[in-house]
Design brief:
The chain has about 130 residues and is mostly helical. It has one domain. The chain contains 5 helices and no strands. The radius of gyration is 17 Å and the shape is globular. The mean pLDDT is about 90.
């Protein structure tokens, strides 16, 4: 349950920000410079939140499937890719501020790895309904 909640929060938040919120801000008539400032601030906050959620999901995966699942399981590989994308986002943002395209690229890698992760099964869940034993 925590896996799905965490996943919904960070993956849904990333996509909602760019598909929902930012286009609406442009349509209501806010100044483009203000929208750019809001976008920069919210992107950094969302990637920071996604970093915490990805780390939490990695801990859930390790608890359910073992430490080797981070490298052998597709879910672990996607979580590691998302974590690398978060790190790349902040390294580029603070270490190379002129490289806006690399920042956008790392945001997209994070978003698409999250979308593929949504399609994977929840760790420790076989898909069967468990029977209650008295």
């Amino acid at each position: 349950m925590l896996w799905q909640l965490t996943q919904m929060l960070w993956v849904g938040g990333l996509w909602l920000l760019h598909i929902g919120l930012l286009p609406v801000l442009g349509r209501i008539g806010l100044a483009p410079l203000l929208i750019d400032e809001i976008e920069g601030m919210l992107n950094a906050l969302m990637v920071g939140f996604a970093t915490a959620c990805v780390i939490f999901q990695a801990l859930v995966l390790v608890q359910a499937e073992g430490l080797a699942s981070l490298w052998r399981d597709i879910r672990g590989q996607l979580l590691m890719m998302a974590l690398y994308a978060c790190a790349m986002f902040f390294v580029v943002r603070f270490g190379w501020p002129q490289a806006v395209r690399w920042e956008t690229f790392s945001y997209l890698v994070l978003g698409f790895s999250g979308l593929v992760l949504v399609l994977q099964p929840v760790p420790g869940w076989s898909g069967r309904v468990r029977e209650a034993h008295p």
